[in-house]
Amino acid sequence: MRQFFKPFIRIVHGVVEFLVHCLFKVVYCGSGQKMPPIKDLLLLESATSVAHKIRTRKITSVQVLDSFIDRIKEVNPMLNCVVAERFDQARREAQAADDLIRSGTIPDETLAREKPFLGVPFTTKDCIAVKGMIHTSGLVKRRNCIAEDDADAIACLRAAGAYPIALTNVSELCMWWESANTLHGRSSNPYNTNHIVGGSSGGEGCLQGAAGSAFGIGSDIGGSIRMPSFFNGVFGHKPSKFVVSNNGQYPAPITTEQTSFLGIGPICRRAEDLLPLLKVIAGKNAPELRLDEPVDIKQVQFYYQDCDMGSVGVSPVHHEIKELFGKISLHLEKAHGIKTKKVAIQRFRKSGPIWFANMKTPNGPSFQEQLANLEGSINPYVELVKWCFRRSDHTFIGIVTALADKGGCKYGDDKHTYLVEERGKLRRDMEDLLGDDGVFLYPTHPTAAPFHNEPLVKPFNFSYTAIINVLGFPATNIPMGLNSEGLPIGIQVVAKTKNDRLCLAVARELEKAFGGWVPPSVEA
């Protein structure tokens, strides 16, 4: 029966998914809006290049800030990715950076070493604390919450000379892969506004794809950096477990296990920014990653798998994404004489159940308590009725998640124990495969950005990224151009824990070979 049931479910899900996609094509007829062309060529540069030009007095921080403020004002009415700004405070900080540089009291070499991003403006998602700004995580009940202190990662960036200018949109409580909530609304994809930006760092991925800040900071417990980076055509890195501090992230992980799954990391348009940004936000833990050690790409072992071997309820990987693995293999062989090795790790078909089981906690707040901001509990049945009449403060998916929260396996039961053991076996299999010099190329997501609300019929597609979180491995989304519909596609590269530098080296190699981020049209 089980052998018959799973193929049957796959067929039914595939038919439903196809029909819904066709329906949305009719609903969202036309190509949607696309982001306006870039007029200011400064927006095309990497954060590293911008920092160097500020430091060497070729441009000023105030000039850079004004360029990004203008771009935010130009694209945000269309995309709704920025939910709060601090432009006035940022202008004072930009002026202070320019004054410090002009004073000449600190040599350029010292500034480059101690304040590598001096004068560079950045953005972050509205669940990572920035002192004096809202800290809502997309929850109506937190609309008046103001962060009293910077998150640790933001404090590290300030110490490196960067300054925040705005907060970006998220999904409600950061637990869905479309960034929409009843407090700030829904964000739209810069390549086609009929499509999603991903979640939960969706507003941040969107703003980076639209060239709205020099770089961004996101967080990722199930793909919340890599999916938005994938959908918006930019780079995003989820660090190894326990390297970057999660202090200042809301909601906070409940257990040490969950803390190991959550990673705060950089989102940016240029691969060269990933390593220096990771080095900054890792703070005192940065030496553990050996980021200063050079990576010879010819000495890296490349493994790839172009699908999850057939998970139930997960979309098949689109052929245009599968074709990327062949293109990468051909490039590596021609350019470096590297032979990639295709693998077929069967346990990846259990990715979704493994993630859900390992996210279970022995106690702690339920999701319906979290939706009440830990001030009691919502009644999801009442909220569902209210939602039908547009009277609920919560999203449909938030309410459904609360209803489903107590479903599935229970912490400590036989199924939970089995899936935790499967996670351990998969981790050991991957560690044996990768060793200390290997990387694993894998789809970031099975399809390009769906239409708005379409994720409701394929909710488990996030399992391609989520499984990497519970393994504790670092992973980087690498943009690989646009598909036939003009939407970004790419792949993720995974390495063994603490081997982030291999992921970042591969990102730079593939950017050089395939172009990386594809900007909108540029006006000369």
From TrEMBL:
Q: Which residues form the Amidase domain?
A: 64-504
* Xref: Pfam families: Amidase
Per the Swiss-Prot or TrEMBL record, the active site comprises 125, 200, 224
Which Gene3D superfamilies does this UniProt record tie to the protein?
Answer: Amidase signature (AS) domain
- Could you name the Gene Ontology cellular component terms for this entry? endomembrane system
Q: Which PANTHER family match?
A: FATTY-ACID AMIDE HYDROLASE, FATTY-ACID AMIDE HYDROLASE 2
Its recorded name reads: Amidase domain-containing protein
Q: Which organism is it from?
A: Tenebrio molitor
